[in-house]
Predict the 3D structure of the following.
Amino acid sequence: MREYPCPQVPAAWSTGAEEVSHGCRRYAIPQLVADLKQIVARSADEHAILAGVRPLVRRAALSAAGWLDKRIYEVHPDVGYGVYLLHEEPDHTLAVLAVSWLPQHGIQAHDHGTWAVVAGVDGPERNVFYERIDDRSRPGYAELGKIGEKVFGVGDVIAMPAGTIPSVWNDTDALTVSLHVYDKHIDHTGRSQFDPDARTESPFIVPVMS
């Protein structure tokens, strides 16, 4: 497991609720959740929410020493990745998850059914972005066109409005981990997975590990 140094936190971010360990402050998941609640309470504008959430998720990713443990490095044997729930409100909103990926594994194109902010925690991950180019009139059918690609590493952040369609892949020879924040738990949004080659769309539920 990677050893994480104490992150350089701007003074304006310092709060009494932060954990202190080994002489440095860490941004704990409960404090991340409290700050997320304040942001979504202030505005219903998705652009404003993503702008506010993005630096918080980066800060939590760089403070992984406070929440990353060995269990998160375990993956589901049937899918090649592990999804761990760190927080979820009773109505399934404000879901915070850690996701681990086996080497040379990932998830093909999918949507989230909600906005999403993802930050690298351990190792680089490649995201390919698509858009729907069919008229969405045929159930189970979807045509996608590639519109971009980004490899992000530790502390890098991707903020995705609702409707974004990415695929994710770990091209490395080591297991990778990323931190994911969603407006609503992705297993409760009715989201889809796509096969760009077969031009199919199907419901997508991920197995959440305990």
